Amino acid sequence: TAFTHSHGADGEHSHEGVASKTWLDLELAAKQAEATSRSLMRKSPGQVELFKANAETLDGELLELDREYKALSEKGSFPKPAFSKSIFQYLAHGYGLEGPSLGWESDTALDHDKLHEIGHLRKDPGIQVLIWADRPQEATVNKLKESGIQSVILNPLDTKPESGDFLTGMLSNLQALKSVIPQG
What we know:
By secondary structure, the chain is mainly alpha-helical. The chain is built from six helices and five strands. A three-stranded parallel beta sheet has the order 3-4-5, sandwiched between helices. A two-stranded antiparallel sheet has the order 1-2.
């Protein structure tokens, strides 16, 4: 979802982009892994049983994690998010976490325009979380917190995580999302 707003006489605009991180929807990741496994089996027929066994294990792990992600929105307890960038569209759509995308870079300081956008976000009382792909500046996090918006950092997993693998990265992302669900 694009966030449309204006800055005075310039007229309305939105911060949209192309999403390419299909693997953040774990159902799609399972299909991608299955296609990769079939290709590997064709290229290495002597390893078919190994590839089949590994594919079955991975498929089960991906779909179990997919169920855990789906539980975030099924309970209706996840606060409505906004996204710093549009790269999380597959995650948002796959797990009912739809919200506006701002086109913000984490390494840029809060300026007048961003403060204006925060004001617009707060006009929608459901938006309580801003999801980032990288750690934003501390001043940005603090200003958002003052406005009642928590910051959450998710790894888009477009490169190998510093530790672990794709599954542990997605599990870490799930835990980060769970951390902003109101308790009680």
